[in-house]
Amino acid sequence: MKKLPDKTYFILLFLISFALYGLRIWKLEHAGLYDYDSVKNYQIAREILEGNFANLYHHASPFFNFYLALLVFIFKGFLFPEYINAAISLLSLFVLIGFVKKEYTFDNSDALLLYLLAGTSLTLVNSSRYLAIEGLTLLFSILVIKYFYLWVKYDNKKKLYIGALFFGVLMVINYKALLLFPIFILFLFASKPAITIRQLIYAFLMGMTPFLLLMLTGVLLNQSLFQYPKVLAGVIFRSGVHPEKEVGLFNFDWLFYFKYFFYYENPFLIPVLLLFPVIFFKQLRLNKDWLLVLVTLISYCFLFGMSLLQKAPRGLLIAYPFMYLMMYLLIKAISKNYFITSFIVIAIVILNITSIVKNIYPYSYTFYPQMAEEIRRREISEVASTVSNRIYPFISSDSVHLKVLLSKQQLKDIRSKYIIDDAYWKITGITFDTLSNLSAVASYKEPAILSPLFLLEHAEFSGMSFSEVLDVRDSLLQKEYHIRLIELD
User: Fold this and answer.
1) Are 365 and 27 contacting, i.e. CB atoms less than 8 angstroms apart?
2) pTM
């Protein structure tokens, strides 16, 4: 086949990027903030702008908290920061495609097909709609992996130091970047690159620089010097987060991700994961293709590791782009014909987009603004809410104090006259069933919490299995209303 001209390639690249970005922001203005963590992040950003740094190290993500505070300062709200987060998520794939295109000497058509395939991933599209760490996590993870690989392949110590610095930035965004460590160690054992003690020390210092800078920044903001390390240790080794039951570190629902692939993400990922080591056995065994080895390690190690831990679709966030790269390489190897490869990829992209349309957009609408309007109409100055804080962005400018109840015991100490019985509690497994018997002064449906992806993301907190999560969704679908404003006697 005749090679796609560069001019045509760049035009198509722009058009595809525009379309993929559209998938990420469609109906976002009607959705409100996605979940508890997104709202908490927005709340912390506002606190930082007000000079309150008490939650600077929340979730051990100070870099992200500063970054979000800057966006909120510039745009005076949460919608445009969400748009930027979606753009960063897409930029991550752009970086990956450019890297793979060069290393595999893909032609322009290969790069576009891979971009379409990975860019329409249901989970990557959904996670790009959060006001959370996922966008930056994906970008810096791909940069770290890129420079780590370039160091090993070309024995370029500058690549090692740049990769170490990016890893340091990644760690102050998302502490779960530590999961990359065992993968890199396995890859080093396989590749056996030349490295000196001096190079390791320099790389360690580069990686520690962002961490140390943010520790010192905390001191300047009247925080303890060791506050950040204490918070980091706390989130890594924490236990007993759930107020009503023991949710341990491990969850042996081994089929969770395979069920998720089959029903939601893409069922073809299952045969890809089964067939890839068979088709590429020779290259992997002989270590002829170090990028192939690294891609394989990332995909299977993340899948195995997350199959042991508490589950959430975003748990495989870093692995999804590499799984779709495996899918494309497998399709190309089996078909050995550009037109057949293109046909299969386009068919899978259509399947991905169908899943996005089915599982994201119908739930991208919230009735919290209407609930907020009812609160304003009644001139309520203080309101409690069961588990959910998703009304916060719509009442924060009205000086309404929101008290989020995280256990049934807190009902005894409630001082506000009004409480929002939010069915969010069912998703988290924290019971507030006693409120169901009380009549409401205002009631609304809430499509956002009916999203199967939304419920599955909370399995990590609730400790539920895949089937238990879907049982909760079935019970929510049967409810007439999901958010109810109750006036207490």
Assistant:
1) yes
2) 0.96
